[in-house]
Design brief:
This protein has helices spanning 4-23, 29-36, 40-46, 50-75, 78-99, 105-132, 142-149, 157-171. By secondary structure, the protein is mainly alpha-helical. It starts with a helix and ends in a 5-residue tail after the last helix. The mean pLDDT is 90. It has two domains: 1-48, Homeodomain-like (Arc Repressor Mutant, subunit A, Orthogonal Bundle), CATH 1.10.10.60; 50-171, Tetracycline Repressor, domain 2.
């Protein structure tokens, strides 16, 4: 079990690192420690390298994204929940690729391996809800959807929603 002060330190470090990397991807570990209000020893005890810190930021983002699915499905139609969730996923992909320049190919592979299963499970949950209410085609495959939406992070941010709309139109149930 993680002590509450250790948890607070970790959360502060992650929040500070997210904000710092958003401003300057070359932020030093010492700048992150200062911003988080922890000593360098605390930072390096939790994150022995910049790469480990970046991987944890990404993993934390995936956990938050996956955790939103039930909430979205409780509030929205399955297709609208899928739309909002996917736009968040695309924003996360952009962040991953912005930070990715600092990562080794092994770290990129680790990110992909850690996130693929939970992301596919989330898409499956959203698809199952849409298939149950007949708003999503029964032959729609989560892996295909992920592959299609994976290209959206490369588009200009203002184009993501319209392009996603085209993908979602293809998921709809259309009379034969």
């Amino acid at each position: 079990m993680v002590r509450s002060d250790a948890r607070r330190n970790r959360d502060a470090i992650l929040a500070a690192a997210r904000a710092a990397f958003a401003e300057d991807e070359n932020t030093s570990m010492n700048q992150i420690a200062q911003r988080a209000g922890v000593g360098p020893g605390t930072l390096y005890r939790n994150y022995p390298s910049r790469e480990v810190l970046l991987l944890d930021i990404y993993q934390d983002e995936i956990e938050k994204l996956v955790g939103r699915v039930p909430e979205l499905l409780a509030e929205l139609t399955p297709v609208e929940a899928l739309r909002r969730w996917t736009l968040d996923l695309v924003a996360g992909m952009r962040t991953k690729h912005l930070l990715g320049a600092a990562l080794s190919s092994d770290a990129h592979r680790t990110m992909a391996e850690q996130s693929y299963g939970p992301v596919i499970a989330s898409i499956t949950q959203l698809f199952d809800a849409g298939k149950a209410d007949a708003s999503i085609r029964v032959d729609a495959e989560p892996a295909d959807f992920l592959q299609l939406t994976g290209a959206l992070w490369r588009s200009a941010p203002e184009r993501s929603a319209p392009m996603l709309g085209l993908i979602l139109d293809g998921l709809g149930v259309h009379p034969a």
